Amino acid sequence: MSITQNLLDEQIQKEVPSAARLAVAALFFVQGAVFANWVARIPTVQEKLELSNGELGGVLLGMAIGAVVSMPATGWLLARFDSRVVTTIAVLGYCMVLPLLALAPNVPLLQMSLVLFGAFNGATDVSINAQGIDVEQRYGRQIMSSFHGMFSVGGMICAAGSGVLASLGVYPVPHLLGAGILLGIVVILASNWLLSAGIETDSDEEPMFALPTGALIGLGVVAFCGLLGEGAMADWSAIYLQGTLHTGPGLAAAGYAVFSVTMAVGRFLGDWLTQRLGSVWMIRLGGIVAGTGLGLSLVITQPVTAIIGFACVGIGLASIVPIVLSAAGLLPGIAPGIALSAVTTAGYFGFLCGPPLIGFAADLVTLRGALGIIVILSATIAVLAKTVRVAPAENS
């Protein structure tokens, strides 16, 4: 009886993580898909409300405000309630808020909608990463990079689809409403296989989130630079192509789609490449590829070279966050959960504050000049590559 029960328990342990892994992957896909649908419609919303780049940057700041409030609150909820329920509510709410962005008739209502959108985005980011960490622990091997790859796949597919809809003249309201409903159905189906447990801290007195201090500062800076570049590409790539290089809305949406494709490929290959090149060289080469590619595309102001530059940013930044999080989790003298939350906080701050920063700079030095900030930050990543060294034997 005992042997039979043990075999049954082992079979259940194998099946549940497999189903949970698919469910979590689906939610990462949904997060990328929701964000890409919004990104593809930013130029249309900007044109409808007659916003300058600087004004748009100020409006987009609402998303950062919402996330800053929701992320710590979500960590608190995950520590005290069923992670499956918290995650389902967060991601489903993220899908349902999407149409509000197109329905907003004026700037104040758009900004309020973006605060709500950012709040659900932040809650989604924390909760699905908590699910991912739990699934990874049950697998006993690194699989987080593949989850982040699914985020990029969602962005890639929906950015391309949104471009087609924009080219066909489909209005933002039915587009975002339909996307929110379809993706919400995916969330409901996937929620049946999520795990109930969330992140476990080493002590009940340890906070769920903390700002980078000491040895985490370098890792926090790298995460900040990398995710600021991702956020800027998401919100400004289409506007640069359509507004600065005067392409059509379909080709403008293709810029973010290409960025998402190369980032997805880089993330799915990231673990394999890191094992062969070492994390330091992966970070260093990533910064060089992103900065050089985008820098050349800003000098040669043609749509094709711009899209190639966006592709370089995607492939260059793809492995930055997974490697930095792995390094943070291995730092001695600090609980992995605290280190991970600290670096994630720094990175997410860059992701959400980057787009408004680019908008403000664009009013001063043009959007082309403002995107040069990403080139500088990519060079900073390459310079700080050694901060991710986690073993003496690792190549540098």
Summarize it:
Helices cover 82% and strands 0% of the residues. The chain is mainly alpha-helical and 396 residues long.
Can you walk me through this structure?
The protein has one domain: MFS general substrate transporter like domains (Growth Hormone, Chain: A). Helices cover 82% and strands 0% of the residues. The chain is globular. The C terminus is likely disordered.
Task: Describe the secondary-structure layout.
Layout lengths: L1 H48 L3 H28 L2 H21 L3 H33 L4 H24 L4 H19 L25 H29 L4 H29 L1 H21 L3 H15 L2 H10 L6 H35 L1 H12 L13
Helix pairs in contact: 1-3, 1-4, 1-5, 1-6, 1-7, 1-8, 2-4, 2-12, 3-4, 3-6, 5-8, 7-8, 7-10, 7-11, 7-12, 7-13, 8-9, 8-10, 9-10, 9-13, 11-12
Name the shape in a single word.
Answer: globular
Into which percentage range does the β-strand content fall?
A: under 5%
Sheet of most strands: none
Structural class: mainly alpha
- By CATH reckoning, the class would read Mainly Alpha
Count of strand segments? 0
Number of helices in the DSSP assignment: 13
- Stretches with pLDDT under 50, minimum 5 residues: 5-12, 198-203, 391-396
Would you tell me which CATH topology applies?
Growth Hormone, Chain: A
Salient structural properties:
membrane, MFS_Transporter, 396 residues, mainly alpha, disordered C terminus, Growth Hormone, Chain: A, MFS, single chain
